[in-house]
Structures are given as structure tokens and as C-alpha cells.
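Please review the protein record below. Tell me whether the encoded fold seems credible here:
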Amino acid sequence: MKHYYSLLLLLFAGSMLSSAYGSSQKLSLEIGKQTKLANIDKKIKTGLKKAPATETSEEEWTLLGTGKYTDDIMTNSGLESKTWDVEIYESKSTPGFYRVENPYGNGNCPYFETPFESCDFLLHAENPDAVWMEYVELKNIDFGLGEGEYCPAYTGDYAGYYIKEGYFDVETAISMGMASGKMLGGNITFEAETLILDFPLFGDEGLSLAANVDGLFCVSLPGASDFKFNIEQPDICTSSDINVKYIAGKDIKEVKYDIFPGLLSFESTDEELFDKVKNEGKTANDGSFTVAPQFGINTVALAAISSEGETVGKKIFYCFGQQENADQWKSIGKAEYSEDLLSSIYPDDLDNVVYQVDIQESVVTPGRYRLIDLYGPEYPYYNDLVKDGNILTDHDHHHYTVVDTTNPDMVYIEAAPLAADFGYGQTMMFSEGWLYMQKGADLTDPEVLEGFGKMENGKITFLGGALFMYMPEFGMPRGNINHKFYIKLPDPGSVAGIPTESETHTFYNLSGIKVASPSTPGIYIKVSADKIEKTVVK
């Protein structure tokens, strides 16, 4: 079982405490470890004249029956997303306007043991392509932010907030793209991080946090189509092929997929990418398919398609081909590595350490280096992380971290798997400059240039925060916060693998391991004083 270390940033942490009927339900929310929004009032209010706040008019409702609610709001307090039964009503006067009755206090909510009065969700799906959620108080739910006193919490989407506060009418909010929800097949969903968990009375300026961080929020009307769609995340790096298993609801007609070299998107809403998969991708069958990643990072995208030809589910993940390509690299000894990625993200558990790592240089492109097993057995915390289940030890290949110094003023680290999982999916690291390159940013922009590192006298450094560790179920916390990260190349005079005067050549197998004399049939790399070449033993 994995040990969940304490993240410095953006971690959803906390536990639920039992409470009696009629009293506040108590949660524990650590505000320093959340996806924190700028004060939402300041996002759009500047220069606007506030109109009188609007109140929802009294509605007459028709009970539609029992539907399903999947939560991704209480997950901000460390609770796992759950699905449970809710009663759903529709407005008699406004078709498409729905009320979800007391979802947290109805007695079915797995987070709270007893029924209590909280709030109804009010969802406007009159336009199924622009659904919005009214801003309402989560009554009698105490997130523990009031220092002994109750601090009320509110939720809704951006449209609901600004409409409630009187800054925009419904038509204007929708035209500005604030309504980020969709209704498809009777299922109402919102884009990730477009719902709000708001504490307007906290402190002097209030506190606004992103909700629906994983994009799991869903209200399914009675009789809604079964469009559930998910994948079992496989190992993200392999020396061969990757088998991907998926789950598709009964109303999904087919699943299309494709694999692309490079990093294409961090967004499951990338319409261009998913249209390409839908129209040109391969068809998966029987709950699984196999892809063959190229060396380096690859993007795998899946689209679930209904019988009407609509894309009703989207998934994206990244994987690495870990082919050795030994004939393209030569060993140059050991680099000195000052670790400030994990130690910045997990400062309570891991300290900055300096240790030696095997390093190779590209034969094809001098100035490109790759570190071998950066968080392998040489890492001083390796055994601790293995014991806690955070380091993956069942891989049959090395893990390479490629550092490009061909321009010493614009050094970047390409995306690389760390063979680690801290509870939020298998991790990878890269530098900010590399990410800018993937996004096609202007590389002359001074702010963009700050994401690149520098190499001086064989020492590679980056500015604080210019490194990322990507965790697919969490996000991208920044490393090198302590400004201690560096890579020091070995002294050229002590480079391993360069023949001495008494040696004419040295042999390596395709795993980069030195062999005295190749006798077993196979392919070997011969390093001579003036060249490196491939040799075959039959």
C-alpha cells in the first residue's frame, strides 16, 4: 500500500467526523494545500457596475424520480468521490431547470451518517450545451475554517456566482462562456475546476477554491443513458507494448483510440485531438487494446462514442517508450545530482540530498545527456520509498532523464518517468522550458525564457519553481522551490568508458553494461578512441 506523503501544495487532505442529527457535519480542509483561485470577485468585477442581486423565484416542481449524483466537491476535504441516489425535480414552468433535493443531507450520502438539512442543487440545462449551476450555501457543513466558529461555505459555477451577485444576467453570462456544463443523455457534467467552493466570510477577503478538480461531478436524471467511461491506468513506461483496459457503459456504442508521439495536450477538452481520434482512430474491442509507444513521451487519447455518433466520454494519458537505443549514447561516468524536486514537494518527509548518478551523452547530438535511474538505488531515500510502495521495482528496464544543453543558455529537461507513484498516478518530471516548447510558446518572451536552465562550467541549474512533477490524478506541483537543484557533469578527464593507451576498444551490451569480451550472440557497442560503432556476434 502506498504511503501518502504530505504535499506542500494543492493536496486535498482531511477526514470526516461523525455528528448528530441537526448539528453541523464536520470536515477538515487544509487551505494551504488546495487548488486556490484568485479572489473570484476580482476576476471580472473590475470596471463593472453591480446590479441588484437576483433571487431565485419560487418554482413549482414535478418529481422526475430517483437519479444519481457523483460528487467532486467534498473531495476538497480529502474524501473519495462517491455516487449515491438523489431525488430530482424539474420546473413546471421552465423545462430543463432541475432541482437535486438535499444531496448531502438526504440520508443516502456516504459521507454523513445521518440526515440533515443542507441545500438543493439548482441546475439550469435549458440549453444543454451551456449548463450552469446556481450559487447556493452548503448549510450545516463545517469545513473547520472558522477557528472554533462556523464559517459558511457556498458552491456553484462561475455563471451562478456572477448571476447571483448581480454582475451579469443569464444571457450575458452564457454568452461570455461562463456556463461550462453540458447535458448529454440525461447526464449533467461540468469541466474540471469550473465549480467553486467559496468561503466569502473567511478572513478579510474571503477564500475561493476550485471544486470538481477531477471533473467527476455528475447528476444523472432518472433513466439517463449509461455513459460511464474509465480506464485502468497501466504502467506509463515500457520496453515493449502497453496494454490498456477500459470500462464502457452499456450505452456506449464504440471506443476509438490512437497514440501520438510527443505531448499533445493536458486537457481532456481538446476538441481537435478528440475529433481526430473519433474520425481517424482505431476501434477498441472487448475492453482492452494495445499501443506501442516510441522512445520518449507519447500521448494516448480515447473517445467513447454513442449510437448517435456523439463523443460522450474522453480520456487521455501519457506513456513512455523506454527502448535503450544504446548505439546512440556513450557513458561519460557519473554526474553529481542535487535533488530538489521531491524535497520541494514533500518537505516534511524528504530532505535535499546530493548523490551520484550514471550519465550518458548522445553520440548523435553532443550536448544532450541522459541520467540513468535518477531515483534508483543511488537515491538516499530509495529504500524508504520502496518500503512505502512509492518506488516501482517491477520494471524490466532503465528510466532515462534527458537533459538538453545544446544551447547552454536554454537548457531543458524532457518529460521523463520517475518510476514512482505517490498515490496520484505514476509520475513524470520535466522543466518549464520544455513544456513551453511543447505548447509552441514564443521563445523570445523573457517570461518564457525564465523556464529554461543554464549550464556554466559543467553545472546545470534552473530558477526556483522551473521544474514540474506531473501526477495524472493530481496536477503539476513545482519543484526546486528551495533553489538547490543542480546537475554537475563529470570532469572530462575522469570520463568512464574512454579507452586508455593500453586499451584499443571497450564493449557494452545494449543495456549499457560493460562486458570484457562479447562471446554470447547478440548486438554490442564497441567504443574506440576515435569512434563508436555497433558490432554483431553470431
Summary: The first helix runs from residue 40 to 44. The chain is about 10% helix and 35% strand. The first strand starts at residue 25 and ends at 26. Confidence is low (pLDDT under 50) at residues 1-23, 32-56, 495-503.
